[in-house]
């Protein structure tokens, strides 16, 4: 068991058993929500990619099959990738660029 400390009016002291249980419950809840936070980030990236290509979907433009497939793959991310793949989808290179092939526009 790891000792945990709390701030008690500016003084640092060892957490009581009840405080430790509360700290652990908050950490468990935070960790359990990690997939939802990652999916929200993925959806934000996906929506940006779709927005960047929305102009191609107007009636005045002809969209290539590759672009149609790209846009479909963006829309299908939530059902095509489960939580165990979220880290892979969010991996970035040393320059901060997403590395997963799903993000590459045709």
Question: Could you please describe the fold and organization of this structure?
Answer:
This protein is mostly helical and 106 residues long. The protein contains 4 helices and 2 strands; from the N terminus they run E-E-H-H-H-H. It has a two-stranded antiparallel ribbon with strand order 1-2. The longest helix has 20 residues. It starts with a strand and ends in a 16-residue tail after the last helix.
Describe the SSE topology.
Elements: E1 5-8, E2 11-14, H1 17-32, H2 34-53, H3 65-80, H4 86-90
**Shape call:** elongated
Strand content: 5-15%
Structural classification: mainly alpha
| Largest sheet: spatial strand order | 1-2
Based on CA atoms alone, the radius of gyration comes out at 22 Å
Give the termini separation. 52 Å
Number of domains: 2
Order of helices and strands: EEHHHH
Query: Using DSSP, what is the number of strands?
Result: 2
The percentage helix is: 40-55%
Low-confidence stretches: none
Number of helices: 4
Residue-averaged pLDDT, rounded?
Answer: 93
Largest sheet: 2 strands, antiparallel
What descriptors fit this protein?
106 residues; 54% helix; mainly alpha; 2 domains
